[in-house]
Amino acid sequence: MSNGTGSRPRILAIDAGGTMTDTFIINERGEFVVGKAQTTPHDESIGFLNSARDALHYWGMSVEDAFSAMVSGIYSGTAMLNRLLERKGRKVGVIVTAGMEDYLRMERAIQTYLGYSYSDRLHIVTHRHNPPLVPRKRIFGVRERIDVFGKVAIPLYEHEVRAAVEQLLRMDVDSIVVNLIYSFKNPVHEQRVREIAEEVMAAEGRSAPVYLSSELYPLRADFPRLNATLLEAYAAEPSREQLQKVRSVTRAHGAKFDLRVMASHGGTISIDARELARTLISGPIGGVIGAKYLAERIGVQNVACTDIGGTSFDIALITDGEFQIKNVPDVARFLLNIPLVQIDSVGAGTGSFVRVNPGNRRIEIGPDSAGARVGVCYPEGGVDTVTISDCNVVLGYLNPDNFLGGEIRLDRQRAIAAVQQQIAEPLGLDVYAAAAGVVELFEDNLKNDLLGRIIGKGYGPENYTLLSYGGGGPLHVSGYSAGLNFEDVLIPTWAPGFSAFGCACGDFEYRYDRSIDLPIFPGIDDATRMHLGAVINAAWDALADQVAAEFAKSGIPREQIHFKPAIRMQYYGQLNDLEFRSPVQRIEDPGDILQLLHAFDTLYAKIYYNAARTPDFGYLATRAIMTGSVDVEKPALPHRAEAGPVPDPEAQVGTREVYWKGAWIATPIFAMDRLHAGNQIVGPAIIEAPACTLVVPPGRKVRLDQNDIFHMRPA
Amino acid sequence: MTMTSDTTAGVGIGWGKRSLRSMLEESERLFAETGRYYGIERLTLKEEDPIRYEKLFSRLRGGMVNARETALNISASPIVREIGELCFALYTPEGDSITLSTGIMVHVHTMSDAIKWMIRNNYEENPGIEDGDIFCNNDAFIGDVHNADVQDILPIFWEGELIGWAAGVTHVIDVGAPLPSGMPMGPIHRYEDGFMLSAQKVGSKNRLHRDYELRCQTAVRLPFYWMLDQQTRIAGCQMIKEAVHRVIREEGIETYKRFIREVIEDGRRSFVQRVKELTIPGTYSVPSFMDVTFGGEAGRLPPEAAKDTLMHAPLTVEIGSEGEFKVSFEGASKWGYHSFNAPPSAMQGGLWVLLTQTLVPNDKVNDGAYFAIQNNLPYGSWANPDNKFCSVSIAWVYLIPGYSGIFRALSMAYVGRGYLEEVIAGHPGTWNMTQGGGPNHYGQPGAWTNFEMSSCGTSARYVMDGEDTCAAMWNPEGDMGDVEAWEILEPLLYLGRRIRPNSFGPGKFRGGSGFESIRMVYNTPNQVLYNLGEGNVFLGTGLFGGYPAFAGYRQSIKHTDMARRIAHHLPYPISDEDPENSQMIAHVEGVLERDKRTIHLPDPHAEYDLYLSVLRGGNGLGDVLERDPTAVVRDLNEGYLLPRFAASTYGVVAFQNAEGEWELDAEATEERRAAMRRERIEQSIPVEEWIAQQRTRVEQKDFIAPVRQMYQESMSLSPTWAAHFRSFWGLDDDWSL
Q1: What is the pTM of this model?
Q2: Residue of A nearest to B485 (CA)
Q3: ipTM above 0.90, yes or no
Q4: In chain A, where are the structural domains located?
């Protein structure tokens, strides 16, 4: 944070959580303030405004003055997710292919264990279906079938459509979702269903929106496509109303920017976007977007992003400047065919419970956690099982009097007693050795996970720069990076707010995907290549039109859009398709097809073993993808003057006894905000900020650079 | 077995230059003498540094998981990729598993058997075991479930010494049997089971032998998939080797050696402890049966195979006061001329998938647990054939019913101990399994197995109903797959895939519902289709008075008028729902084929023919008359229960209101239930009387042929069981079949 004297606020990022709304405001110098206020679910604009006021009071500015100066406002939040989890969405009616009316209660079986720990995935009595978003009686089947080639196998029984719509209207539905098998191949039946529905509604003097899966998510896999389309009608539309209220408030207070929302593909989109369900998960991916932006600014190609919160350890890899996209992710126990930034989440955070199994006396960490209730050391949290945070307090890593800037006081003695009784005694260890052992094991597990992801990518840690953020990242980064020989280890001083920062870094960008399933057999002639090219171009053109139409809603002309065509491809017969940016903007000649194939071959060889390449059978282009973005202002990185390696004397605010590898050492404690660029601190040392603690063990040192980022290295 | 010169010292590749065989023999001797793995008394590494011990474990286990997650992407097979039929494990030099990846838990022990077989047959001397060698196995008599599960086994060396084995297994698409598929239906000898690799050395210096590669090109139908699966397994094993080397570099070889033995003994003790913690000692009898309806295949199968037979699985689980856990099939019927025999290694597979779903659902299971269990698999029975030439192609057809008592036995023990939330009333049959082949919709010859069977209902729990459409006995992570995925492979349109009413076993808590799929042969001139499942028997019982789920049937309608119906927009079947009031039959004209021959050879179908697949539901738990009447009404309103069974099964009287919704008549229900209780009392007789009545039939050998043959086999194979049978029925000592 800073006093912001004489600065102009430029970018606003809002993170509306279930209980608190955080506002993150950055000025042109990369300085920022964070405001907090209670979320007001009935009208989120109230909580938002309070939160913005809270942030701006640090700079002594009024909302009117600040808003009128800003160029960008980005929203991310959990409102839609909560609406979904609490099943407080719209009253939707559904029309599917006859015989398929039980989609939502069968859930393809797979949704009975999504989001479970490995142990519970095995443990059969724990598997449960989710309460459906739409009850069975509001789901109607209509006879029709499109086949795998997109041909009409059974024509649409229109009288059944009429009857279904009439019944749904009698049930007073708010909207109708239509998902027919293979509609992504041939939308003719879905389109006809909408025409009929509109006729029926017109005749009855009614009106309700009709959502077609072939329009919103024209992608293979009927169940995830239904889920995604349903989500749009059920949870996204009501959320749009909330976003409109927030936008009205910003405009009423002088804002000229158009409020955007972080979307799952990693770009931000207008709140008027047709597909809003893709903004369901926005918060967690913010960090990855921020990391990508940071990487660009500081000139690194490969970044391993690690985020430790109270409940989980999230890993994402940026390779050659790009993050990976997951095609059919699961969110809130729903399988969705909405492209999502690939983040692997392990159930291990600072709040993870630590137990000694009474049967075999082996330590178990997680997968459940105390989350925001910290641990036994926080009596008000009501937790009586030891957590990782308890061990950190016992060992002196965490300052019990300066947790969250002193907002919460932690009871170290309580933590010591609990670790003694629950961990040390059963293992026959000294209480401090036990706590240290648990932290070591925790960090070792994180290290294994991290290493696994990187090796799985066909790389080694030496090819990556490690970036650590989240409330718990700086606390454990020395442990989980130890011995891995990363190119560099970065800890931004704003690590706890890095995800919010990341949201502010998002491009204004729309992305559309379409299944094409186009085989490219070996030995084809140029004429055939050009024919294939025409198919791919047509798909890209259609997607580009969609992108342009969305930007048009924000008044942005087509000329300003940077179009980035991409494709997903696999070896014919294999199942694993990979996504890559097309090396050519359009397929103009037969050689362009070869360029596409070559780009795929290269990418594949990099990720998997060379031996697994099987181009002999040809290739299958599974999806055409078009991303379009326009230039928007991104946060500036802080830039500080170098002040030399030795910190100011007042930067050290005290010493504390800290347990390092079996010994108590009087360890200097530094205040993070009193350090200057160029300062270097050799471990053992603890660097404290209100919402985060950077642990520098013996044998390691950190240096703060001009961008307010710590670099950790062997001492 | 030929005994060749043993090399106890000086020349072996094992630890301290011993031979692997002497290491294995020592391990077995020490276990026999002490009851502890390698005779280990104290877990010194764990006691002295529990943290380091745990770190070692998590590093090795992490190596297995990473190997699986990475290698998974190489395979082209939907079975590997989508269903996840892929598993990696690390073994000691003697072949005992140290840790496993996620994936199919079937293989906790199968590959162990294969490694031990190689050691016992002195592979060390010939063909030799060297760094970089690759061994491949899919022989169930050596160590596997069936030919479809193909394993690669790679030795791991450190400074010239063999320190362990890395192994991986995938379920392949085709095994080159006379009929297409990985699990062809119809083999009655192993010669028809397909390409067989009996722990064969197929590569050296980290490369597959060229002669082997060339052989694979013609040995199976889809060599492309076969080779990619092999790359998958080898790549994973190589990653395991690297992970082990990394750990040894960091921790030292001596620590590694100590660790791998301790962690197995630890696994054994953990299992024993878990048994003591959750169960009550005693003998739990949980028998079950399975019918094979090959009687209708005369002319297509030789006489010894073309008959209806019944499999007998008189499973008992015996739990001792010190946590001893004994699984016995004493009295099992004989192996047979069909594809369902299950050698001991396959039996181990079946047991582990179940134990890891209830008693030990964690990531720390290894062969220590195997050492904690005693198995009794009578030699000569279907569970341990004395004929090494019988077929094992679909061993699961016997494994699934054979072990259907495991959950029930453990559940009785859990109740005794008060762990009510752990209780589950058995598992249903994981079927109907739909398989087929013929010209596909791309004009190519095709063969396919539909894995939507992985999503059957689960059985009722002590505190709630079972889960609808959820899991398979062999994989708790069910996934029926999208219609748009299956129709890429299969030239059959889905006309419907819906919850099947009454597919669960009733009880105070009902089983989870199964579902049904109606398929129409389409875009192909012809296609052979098979059913697979039980038709005449139930897999075990429900629990505590609950009923088992229903048995299946076979139903196809051929020469239909579907083309005309479609052209005229006339209704066609989208469900079947009720065999007594079939919606399928009601909505199409054609030739109906319906019977209980649920196991049969390929059945030809033509375009527009319809095929019904009914996927099973779970068993019930508790007395039907104790079921909450409002739950019965809810089942009526949601279509889970056919209306006529509300009163007849549950004694619940409901009526439909003006909107067609069912409502409870509480008073009439109470009356009806009281009457049913009275009827029960009136109909009941003392057990001795019932036995006496039935005894006459038994004494006169009044059995249908399959039952007679089954008992005859059980009695001739096991004098113990024969004596038990005679004493139960009070028969003379010379009574026999």
Answers
A1: 0.92
A2: A221
A3: yes
A4: 9-83+240-263, 87-238, 284-338+453-502, 352-442, 508-630, 649-714
